[in-house]
Amino acid sequence: MARPIHLDSVDKEYRSAGTVHVAVDDLSLTIPEGSFTTLVGPSGCGKTTTLRMIAGLETPTSGRVSFGEQDVTDLSPQNRNCAMVFQSIALYPHMSVRENIGYGLKVQGVPRDERNRRIDEAAETLQITEQLEKMPAELSGGQQQRVALGSAFVQDPDVLLLDEPMSDLDAKLKAELRVEVQRLHQELDATMVYVTHDQTEAMTMSDHVVLLNDGRLEQFAPPGELFDRPVSEYVARFIGTPSTNVLPATVEPREEGYALAGEGFEVPAPAESFVGREGEAVSLGVRPQYLSPDGGDHRFTVVADVVEQLGTEFVVHGRTPGGTDVDVVSPTLGDVEHADELTVGFDAADVYVFGEDGRTVCYGDELANDSPRPQRNS
Fold first, then answer.
1. 245-253 and 281-286: which strand pairing?
2. Residues 90 and 36 in one domain
3. Residue 130, in any domain of the structure
4. Residues 3-52: pLDDT tens digits?
5. Number of other CB atoms surrounding residue 191 within 10 Å
6. pLDDT value of residue 370
7. Cis status of the peptide bond prior to 242, with omega within 30 of 0
């Protein structure tokens, strides 16, 4: 039966040669019961350490871990009804697929008939029924990973943990297995926690995403909220491909409120968000998909450097005359070449504004709703 997972002020420190390394720093969150939650972030941000503390493979330096109302901080992994799939595909090479999937059940003393029934159900769900009598060496990488998933699935865990299970697969197999894992979640009555450094996996598979930064929680929200309402420049840059453009600007007073003045553009801004910030350097975050070569209320110049074609869209990597890197995504840029100069525009509604500390000051809807219509720059 699925249970929520509570992390309460969890810290994890490692000590080596007199040096303390903080892997996880004061992490508090509740992963909803039955949800598919992904821990994402760059290498070294603490996501695998967090997963291992949930599994019981690591003990927190301080703080508590609970499954529902049960404090499991000091429980051994085998007493948590928790299964884990590791990055490396750990199959027994001398056992058949059937034996690999059912090994955990055999250790638990589950009768053979019941084992076989559960193995057959797992194999059918993961579409590997025809592979049950084969040996691991006879399988492809994707099939081996399905076997590893099956060995966890078959234990009927309350919590299923997956530590970068697709990192060694090619792009096609990753896409196939993403669907399989989501289908598995629908079949299971379990809370699933998935670790990846690939934000595409996090955004396409998850009910909720935990984005970590140097061991600390940066944002915990549904994927759409991370994309549309990032709490910081770090979140905006990490989530989305290509990364969010960050345009420097300065808060300047005007007769009616304030303006965010940048290189070739000026965005009116609501007084309540910027009072007392006169002269402060801020940044405007604009996703490449929201920069238009055909319109937008606020326009500036970009000099193209590299042009990539991605299916029906083109990505122009360039920079402003002042040296700010800018990416533009549009299906209409196929004729752009190196060193071409183009004018692109954005609307205030599509902007995030970040303060000097990198935290979000306001979102585009606040700019669009509370500001007068801008005068276009000539």
1. antiparallel
2. yes
3. yes
4. 999 999 999 999 988 899 999 999 999 999 999 999 999 999 999 999 99
5. 27
6. 54
7. yes
CA 255 to chain CA mean position, Å: 42
Closest by alpha carbon to 236, among 247, 208, 195?
247
Q: What CA–CA distance (Å, rounded) separates 46 from 23?
A: 5
155/21 same-domain check: yes
CA atoms of 51 and 335, how far apart (whole Å): 47
Residue 170 lies in a domain: yes
The range of the structural domain enclosing residue 342 comes to 237-370
Residues 293, 369: contact at Cβ < 8 Å?
Answer: no
139 plus 83 within the same structural domain: yes
> 353: how many CB neighbours lie within 10 A of its CB?
24
Q: Which residue numbers in the chain have pLDDT < 70?
A: 370-378
* Same domain flag for 159 and 251: no
Q: Distances in Å between the alpha carbon of 162 and those of 116, 148, 196, 238, 341?
A: 24, 10, 9, 21, 46
pTM here?
0.89
* 275 and 196 housed in the same domain: no
Question: DSSP characters for 220-282?
Answer: EE-HHHHHHS-SBHHHHHHSSSSPPEEEEEEEEE-SSSEEEEESS-EEEE-HHHHTT-TT-EE
Same structural domain, 172 and 60 = yes
Please give the pLDDT value at position 174. 80
Cα three-residue angle 201-144-211, rounded to 5 degrees:
20
C-alpha dihedral (309, 313, 317, 320), degrees to nearest 10: 150
Shared-domain flag, residues 281 and 151: no
Confirm whether 100 is domain-assigned. Answer: yes
